[in-house]
Amino acid sequence: MGWLDTLTLFKRRAADDKPDASQTTAELMAQALDAAEANDYESALAIWGPLAHQGVARAQNNIGKCFSEGLGIAQDSALALKWLTLAAEAGDPIGQRNLADIYFKGEGVEANAVQAAELYRAAAEAGDGPAQDMLSWMLVEGEMIPGDIKEAKHWAELAAAQGVVPAMTRLGMIYHNAIGVERDPVEAARWWDKAAARGDADAQVMLGAAYQLGAGVPQDGVAALMWLLRARANGNVLADSFIQPTFASMSAADIERARKLAELPLVEPV
């Protein structure tokens, strides 16, 4: 589907839905978001389309994301790239992050980690938590883009403050492995506890191992096994290597108690 064909389609959908002309852009965007959250992407696109052609950057981002993932419209990498580029150039941080994802993954364009990092940085500086998290990860990896661990830690802390769970897990690893900081098992376990309580399997396995060894937290077989079982249930392949040694040091009653605790629903911290 070409650019003009897409415009015609959006206009047709908008005409079919006949949105109230008196509605403000904010009201229309809210209406479209409600439709999208109800998985009615066709109705959402009918609103976003005309707004995107009027230059509303967030609408351009939303259309680009729909083309990228095939939400309510046929997947089209070229059109995803065009719309997300428009949104990013207009300064929309989510558009910048989504365009960065495309360059990072090489979806419909040659993979370019440097270009991706520049876009993640722009979105991160605008306060986008997921972009802050991704930029932190790229800096920790070190081989992808230049930077230092202090900057990686800075972005991870900002992302974690916004509730981005992988950033919490990464901070735990930074303190555990003494990456640019003094090794601090207590601080590592504190961050893993935050992420584990929010369902992150990597944090759960590390927290379980910490309880098994008494590293940064009191040694506690029941707590160790509970978190390790949750990590395994969430697909973490490392959990089994810690589960068997934990079993060996526990009574049958404690093992059963840990199993029952592992099956309880998580209560995310306030």
The portion of residues assigned to helices is over 70%
Quick one: biggest sheet?
none
Shape: elongated
Radius of gyration: 23 Å
Low-confidence stretches: none
How much strand content do the residues show? under 5%
How many helical elements? 15
Q: SS-based structural class?
A: mainly alpha
Distance between the termini: 46 Å
SSE order, one letter for each helix or strand: HHHHHHHHHHHHHHH
| Secondary structure: number of strands | 0
Average pLDDT for all residues: 90
What would you say this structure looks like, in words?
It is a single chain. This protein has 270 residues and is an all-alpha fold. It has a domain at 1-90. The protein has 15 helices and no strands. The longest helix has 15 residues, at 3-17. The relative contact order is 0.06. The model has no long low-confidence stretch (mean pLDDT 90).
